[in-house]
Amino acid sequence: MNTAIDRRRSALYSAAGLGAVILLWWVGSVTVLAEARIPTPGGVIGALLRDGFGFYWQHFSVTIHEAAIGFFWGNLIAILLASVVLVLPWTERLITQIAVISYCIPIVAVAPVLYIVIGAPSTGEPSGTAVALAVLAVFFTTVVGTLLGLKSADPASLDVVSVYGGSRLTQLRKVRLIAALPAILNALQIAAPAALLGAILGEYVGGVRQGVGLALIIAQQNLDVERAWAIGLLCAAVAGGAYALFGLIGKVAAPWSKGVA
C-alpha cells in the first residue's frame, strides 16, 4: 500500500516539476528571453504538428538504427574485454588504459578523422562514422561498470568453485557474471543515451542523406528555431525513453539489486 502511494506521489511530483519547467520556459520566452530567439512551448508544438510524424520518423529511425548498432557492438566489446581481465589478470592494465583513452578522446575532434577513414555511407546504409562514434561513446562506461561488477562477486562462492576444481573461466561463468548483472545493466542504462548522442554527432560531419544530425543542420541553416527545439526535445525524449527502458529491464532481470534504477 505504501509503495503504491509513494509511486503516485512520485508521479505527481514529476508532473508538477515538468509543469513548472514549461511555465518558466513560456514566461521567459515572452519576457526576458524574447530577444534571444527562444521559442514558446506553443511554437515548438506548432512545429511538431506542422512537420508531422513522417518527417521526424524518417530522420529519427535512421539515427536510432545507427545508435543501436553502435550500442550493441560497443557494449559487446566492452563486456568481452572486461571478462578477459578476470580470466587473464595481467591484461587489466592494458584494457583499462584503452578504456581511459577512448573516454579522453574528444568525440567532436575525432569525428572528421573517422569520416575521412570510413567515408560516406552508400544509399540506404547507416553512417559508419555515426556507428563508430556510438561505439566510442558507450565503451568506457560499460568496461568500468562490468569490471566493478565482476570484481564484486562473493569470495566464498568463488572459493567453492575453486575447491571443486573450477577454473577462473568457470568462476566467471558460474559466479562473477551473475554478480555483475546489476552493474552491467546500470552501465547499459547510462550507455543508451550516450549511443544516441554519438550517432547524432557522427551525422554532423556530413555524408548522410537522412538523420537527426542532418535535420538539425538544415534547421540551423534555415534559422528554423522552432524545428530545432522540437528536434532537441524529441532527442531528449528518445534518450530518456532508452534510459527508462534499461532501468525497467534491470528491475526485472536483477530484482535483488537496489542499485538498478
From TrEMBL:
GO terms for cellular component: plasma membrane. It is a multi-pass membrane protein. Residues 56-246 form the ABC transmembrane type-1 domain. It is found in: Cell membrane. It holds the Pfam family BPD_transp_1. Keywords: Cell membrane, Membrane, Transmembrane, Transmembrane helix, Transport. It comes from the Bacteria. This is ABC transporter permease. It comes from Nesterenkonia jeotgali. The lineage of its organism: Bacteria, Bacillati, Actinomycetota, Actinomycetes, Micrococcales.
